Amino acid sequence: ELLDKVTLERDSLPHKPPLLVKIAPDLSHKDKEDITSVVMREKGGADGLIVCNTTIERPETLHSAHRIEAGGLSGKPLKEISTLAISDMYKLTDGKLPIVGVGGVASGRDAYEKILAGASLVQLYTVLAYEGPPVVRRIKTELAELLKSNGYSKLKDAVG
User: Fold this and answer.
1) Using an 8 Å Cβ cutoff, are 101 and 28 in contact?
2) Per-residue pLDDT tens for 33-60?
3) For residue 8, which of 27, 42, 45, 112 sits 20 to 30 Å off, Cα-Cα?
4) What is the dihedral sign for C-alpha 70, 72, 77, 83?
C-alpha cells in the first residue's frame, strides 16, 4: 500500500524521479521474496533498490564498549551482511532492477565486492564521515585498477 501511494504521488509530478526502496540487512529470505514481488510489479513497482540500511544485529566481532548501545550499526561490521543481501536481491530480481550497494564500503576492493554481488552503484557513508571527500578519489582509483586487472573494461560488465 505504501509503495502504491508513493508511486501515485510521484506519477503526479511533472518530472518523475526514480523511486528506490531501501531495505534492511536483517530480513529473512521470505521477507526478501515478499519485497521482490512488490518492487518488481509491472505497475506500481520500484525503479531500484538500496541494499542495505543499518543493522540492529550486534556481531560477536564487535569489541567496542559501545557495542550494546541501541540503534543502527553501520560501517565495517555491516560489510559482509550487506554484500550477502545485495547478492540475494540481485538473484531474486534476476538482475532486472538496479541496486545501490551500501554498507561497509571503505576501499575499492569493498566496492568491487558489492558490484560483483550485483550492485550497479555503490554508496559511501561511514568512511566519508570519517575520512572526508578525498576518500572518494582513492576508492575510485582502487576500483578502476581492480576492474582493469580482472579484465573488465566497463563497470556494468562486472555487475552480478
Assistant:
1) no
2) 999 999 999 887 899 999 987 766 656 6
3) 27
4) positive
Sequence letter at residue 46:
A
Distance of CA 156 to the CA centre of its chain: 15
What pTM does this model have? Answer: 0.87
Identity of the amino acid at 32: K
**Residue whose C-alpha cell reads 573488465 in the numeric block:** 152
DSSP-derived secondary structure for the chain: -HHHHHHHHHHTSSS----EEEE-SS--HHHHHHHHHHHT-TTT--SEEEE---B----TT--SGGGG--S-B-SGGGHHHHHHHHHHHHHHTTT-S-EEEESS--SHHHHHHHHHHT-SEEE--HHHHHH-THHHHHHHHHHHHHHHHTT-SSGGGG--
The C-alpha angle with vertex 7 and arms to 29 and 85, in degrees rounded to 5, equals: 20
The answer for 44, left when phi > 0, alpha when psi is -120 to 50, beta otherwise, is left
